[in-house]
Automatic annotation (TrEMBL):
Pfam families assigned: Peptidase_S9, Peptidase_S9_N
Domain called Peptidase S9A N-terminal: residue spans: 43-445
The protein's name: Oligopeptidase B
Signal peptide: 1-25
Amino acid sequence: MSLHPWSVLGATFVIALSSSANINAQTNVPPTVKAPMTTMPVPPIAAKSNWSEVRHGETVTDDYRWLQKKEDPKVIDYLNAENAYTQAMTSGVQALADKLFAETKGRMKETDLSVPVRRGKYYYYSRTEAGKQYGINCRRLADAKLNYDEKAVEEVLLDQNELAKGQKFFMVAGTSVSPDDRYLAYLTDTTGYRQFKLQIKDLKTGELLKDTAERVTSMAWAADNKTMFYVQEDATTKRSDRLFRLILGDKANEIYHEKVEQFSIGVGTSRDRKFIQLQAYATDTSEAWLLPANQPQANFKSVLGREKGHRYNVEHRDGSLYIRTNKNAKNFRIVTAPLTNPTEKNWKEVVKHDDNVLVGNYEVFRDYLAVTEKTQALNRTRIFNFKTKQWKSVQFNDEVYLANSAGTPEFTAQKLRMSYQSPTTPPMVMDVNMATGERTILKQQEVVGGFDASKYEARRLWATAKDGVKVPLWAVYKKGVKFDGTAPTLLYSYGSYGISTEATFALSRLSLLDRGVIYVQAHIRGGTDLGERWHEDGMLMKKKNTFTDFIAAAEFLIQEKWTSKDKLIIQGGSAGGLLMGAVVNMRPDLFKAVHAAVPFVDVMNTMMDASLPLTTGEYLEWGDPNNKAAYDYMRSYSPYDNIEKKAYPAMLVTTGLNDSQVMYWEPAKYVAKLRAHKTDNNPLLLKTNMAAGHGGASGRYDAIKEGAFNFAWMLSQWGITE
């Protein structure tokens, strides 16, 4: 982790100020940092500069606007100074962080192999080696019966460790092999900004082709093995808006531009590989186009056009389209229609709408249809046999769990690859025989040193929201914890974009549970945990339900004596960081400490600037602040705009300099303003990874170190030092 800290000598915090540091705070020139010399760590005090803008007749000021100038050395100076202060303030927890890192690393099987999956005549998999940060992508030729042959020669497609050499950050975002198995297209990012470069490797010769493209977000091969379609994002807004057709060795041509700012596009291939699929999507509307994969020079044809409020996607099987649609179906349904005329009058219902069941991912095979559904915050999978017309359900008995499709690329597959885990069950991969329902466990994540699930317990809880709605939670803890209000508790949530909170297993979390910590997640409104209405009731002009649901969850844990105010720490990232900022403004007395990761806290300044990445597409989730009513509502909860002179909990705010989703300056400005207003003596720390983006460190060991530091800081707030 490269944080470029300032010099910290013992307990002395040393800053070399530039000559501009004494400029009066009321001038328009932003000073760098003003921090007095002292024998104790003293936080950097970000200077103020004049900036104002009139919005809906109101003059809005932003004292820390200068921090948005990433190219200004004074901004980097400030971030480095904050890192140095954080390092000085947390020197006492570093030993514990190192211990947590060692514990997690010690549980991890460092040299490991993923479950191979067949695509065509090859089995593809990735493996890791001890001491290496990144995975190695490989394949082996199947045997004559298309079974996996571990004796076949391994072909290394990408050694990510070699590609990452000399890079502070490295990420492979996606791979795609041509239908004839010869070419590998892959996307890489070396900054953390999620701007991916397309490269194509000839797997026969091992050479990279000259065909490349910048800012690629999705890709698909045509059936001729020489034509590729890819989507490129805008360099400024990061909206995926342009589709290109590339013939290897030739210049790529733009063939579609999505002009509507609320929409992004993506390209892929149908499971039977007969069609290239182009999808345009906004929060409330979508449109799908198809192009025969064997006619790459033809034109894409829209399936059902674009109708405001209609969200749909399609798959093809034997001349019919299987359409997942929300038309007259809030939680979606699945219909089939002839490829030649898929209009609504020709629809035949396959999966009916249910107010209590969200129809999610679906996979169409030659002989089966597999549908993942969610009800009461739990997933289930149902499989339809086209021959027998019968359904089979794949369900699990745990009170809380996560079961999902794990990727079955072959159209003729007879077994569905699934993954399963729970807070007390390490992730496993299984094949489900789609005819009989028989399950075969192929692999379960190994916990090195042993793991006894019987020592832990996971439970479903229900809190009552401010308006009387029941909000589900899940909790996991080590048996023997006392429910008398004394247990340290970590409460996490997200609550935006329809993203559900899932009951997962985590190796690193065991270090908390073994120290007596209760871990809880809340399925607050804004996700689709209880269906599409759950999302709608936590967005736009109902967004505050997200925050009050979380507060209700915290109050429930306290009232039921799971914990107490001085033992409750909360955590959230990105839009969940907005949640953190909002609830500590509303109820700062309710929480002992807060970890806000890459937090979306400067809502108004970001949403009022349409030139920033991803902003206009967010209008349908948060509201368009150019509308006065939406502006006033968003302004009333924006964390940065509602900081007041009062006591706040201890806070750790983490971010990445190259974050493309939530710019680094949002948490930086938030901390600067909070520090100028808060009336307490609780620690307020900003930690910026100077070589990463929204997802933090890219290497697996570096990522564990970041998480270990965050947990060690939390444990120190509970008074747990070992």
